[in-house]
Amino acid sequence: MMGGNNGSDTSGGQFVRFTVGGLSMGIDILGVREVAVIPGITPVQHAPSFVRGLINLRGQPVTVVDLGVKSVSPGRTLTGHTHVIVLKKAHVGILVDTIGDIVPVPVGGIEPLPSNMDLTNIDVIDGVVKLEHEPMYIVFPVRLLDAMAKTSGGAGE
Question: In this structure, is residue 36 part of a structural domain?
């Protein structure tokens, strides 16, 4: 599966498109278990700021990560369009503002982030796909889980 550094992975595939704070992002569909409507998030005391809390998904606790805290919209509110993209590798979900379509990306279609982009605080973005109307920033699940482990001492594994 995907997982280069600094956008060096040019593998193609299909990506679930979503938005966080107005940014168009995508995640490899092979790393997604499901997309769920927010049933209610239970806050977790002493968790890192990007951990929004826990949800109960059919009896399984899922840690919900809010990429907006690290990027463009800290403190955002949940709406009727807010969903969680649950990852296959761990009981972790990404809080997203909206879910878009499935975007096919050809081999070589993922490019490194330009050096002048101010997305350095989002260490889970590892590349960009140039779409017709806007860029789609690629989130790699492995980098998200690694970032969680570094920040919280292994939570989410």
Answer: yes
